[in-house]
Amino acid sequence: MELSTILQPECTSCATPGSKKKVLELISDLAAAQYPPLSSQEIFESLIAREKMGSTGIGCGIAIPHGRLMNIDQPIAIFIKCEEPISFDAIDKQPVDLLFALLVPAEQCQQHLSTLSSMAEKLSDKKILKQLRKTTDSKELYQVITT
Fold first, then answer.
1. Of 99, 103, 92, 93, residue with least CA distance to 133
2. What residues are annotated to the active site?
3. Is the pTM of this model over 0.90?
4. How far apart are CA 1 and CA 119, in angstroms?
5. For domain 3-146, is the CATH number 3.40.930.10?
6. Residue 73 to residues 35, 43, 68, 69, 84: CA-CA distances in angstroms?
7. Where are the chain's structural domains?
8. Which of 32, 87, 133, 137 is deepest in the core (most CB within 10 A)?
9. For every one of its 147 residues, what pLDDT tens digit does the chain have, with 9 covering 90 and above?
């Protein structure tokens, strides 16, 4: 699946959220603004429920928060670059500055895992990470992550 089919430019942001809770709220707000049937509260609760099972901070300054929602029929992605890294309880104990969030229909487990896997692979490319971290605005961030 092409990333540009699930990640809209409006769901890509350079931000300064300050904390794990605030960045998950930002992700929820961005998704809800673009997909009106969703409420930011239900998105936030889905992301928090997953974080309670274990942090989605995968190391190297990257987190991949994700959740399942009952009332969507296609995956929704949100990409955030934090201006200042935030504590995220990552496996390597390092702060996080890049977050790829994925919301999927509750019944699409396999597609969910496949998309997460391909994004983790993309974010393991040091060249892409360097480009992402050098971006200064949301438009540039979107271009880098979707190419």
1. 99
2. 66
3. yes
4. 11
5. yes
6. 11, 14, 11, 9, 34
7. 3-146
8. 32
9. 578 888 999 999 999 888 999 999 999 999 999 888 889 999 999 999 999 999 999 999 999 999 988 888 888 999 999 999 999 999 999 999 999 999 988 877 666 677 777 788 888 899 999 999 999 999 999 999 998
